[in-house]
Amino acid sequence: MISNRNQKGKNTTTSTTLYKIQDGYIADTPGFSTFTIDEIESEKLAYYFKEFKQYLSQCEYGDCEHVKEEKCGIKKAVNENKINIGRYDRYCKLREELKEKEEHKW
Ligand SMILES: [Zn+2]
């Protein structure tokens, strides 16, 4: 019996990448670069770090950047070892890269 299957290319689509990002996979990828997350705005980056989300409400300002602010829920969680410092580090670096890209865009 011969079965005819159509092979679908399914590993090169943008949606796959985005899905992984939404799933919080983003920061678990070593060598991850902003090349992959071009479409993310720097202000929204924190939402893509799964474990950051629950602390966002503790930030004093709605537009908190989680970098220099004093009363920041994310930084507090990092200090209390609730958020891995390495992950936070990566957040800061990615954020910088994204900001730079945004500046060059305009
Ligand atoms: Zn914050």
Summarize this structure as a short list of keywords or feature phrases.
single chain; 106 residues; mainly alpha; 4 helices; 39% helix; binds zinc ion
Protein described:
This protein has 106 residues and is mostly helical. The chain has a single domain (14-105), classed as Ribonucleotide Reductase Protein R1, domain 1 (Orthogonal Bundle). The chain contains 4 helices and no strands. It has helices at 14-22, 53-56, 73-79, 85-105. The model is unreliable at 6-19 and 27-31 (pLDDT under 50). The structure holds zinc ion. Zinc ion binds at residues 59, 64, 66, 69, 72-74.
Q: What's the average pLDDT?
A: 75
Instruction: Choose one word for the global shape.
Output: globular
Largest sheet: none
**Reported CATH architecture:** Orthogonal Bundle
Task: Indicate the low-confidence ranges by residue numbers.
Answer: 6-19, 27-31
Distance between the termini: 60 Å
Heterogens: zinc ion
